[in-house]
Amino acid sequence: MVELKNVTKVYENETHTTCALDDVNIKINKGEFVFIVGASGAGKSTFLKLLMREETPTKGTIIVKDYDLGKLSRRQIPYYRRTMGIVFQDFRLIPTMSVYDNVAFAMRVINTKEKVIRNRVPQVINMVGLKHKAHSMPNELSGGEQQRVALARALANNADIIIADEPTGNVDPQMSYEIVELLTKLNETGTTVIMVTHAHDLVRKFNHRVIILNNGKVVADGKIDKKGGRRRAAEKSAKKAEDEKAPADEEAVEPEDCALEEEQTPEPEGDAAPDGAKTNTEGGEGQ
Length: 287
Ligand code: ADP
What we know:
- Helix content is 32%, strand content 22%.
- The chain has two domains: 1-83 and 160-259, Rossmann fold (3-Layer(aba) Sandwich); 94-158, no CATH class.
- It is of the alpha/beta class.
- Bound molecules: adenosine-5'-diphosphate.
- The site of adenosine-5'-diphosphate has 13 residues, from strand 2 and helix 1.
């Protein structure tokens, strides 16, 4: 469903070159729930931006569903984005619209028929447990409730993949738990969920796959086993990597340069290889 193959992302400006992702390989299957964790500057937002096609990789390939993101034309991008539901830390609701209209608006902008909207909006509002608040305004809702509205909006257009960028970042712990519980329920109905989070306690409570990024690299990728041993080991090795490279208070980390250059085949010692000998073990070159 989602595949990153040897993806490197370098940001360049006049003074700085930053390697945000460094030769990352990730495969996420349809129906998976994946937490993406890592210190500030680890590359989490870059990963999401690449998935949303807000950025393009410097190197490598990204496939999402049937889309090769490197080959999407400018005109295809909005259609591609409509196939995914996106939830942000700061909810991004329209303050002058009711819960119902916030959700309906997401459908109206893509010219959905009013009849379909009238049917679908109550359905998704119900799914997130806010039937009784359909006509409330965002400022009448708690943070957790606002995030549920954002989730309903993400689901309104039948997205089969939800990308959530720190969805619990502005929500109290109990509500945070409920939001991840809700995402888990949606996941159980087949929706793929990719959630970036800093909330280690939540990650520990839910038995989902965890990908840990550090300095633009995947340093751990795994699911908890029954006793939690395997993931604890993965967390431990990631923590060690974070401790070595990142300040404990999660200040932004300055990533190292990417190894962008192709690896050189070592020069044979002494004389050059005999005529006709192949040093390229993958073969095929020049044929
Ligand atoms: P995270 O989301 O894990 O905090 P980011 O993906 O935002 O990490 O950032 C990874 C690295 O790339 C950081 O060093 C950050 O400063 C850098 N970076 C992110 N976006 C840009 C940009 N638009 N221009 C230059 N550097 C960037």
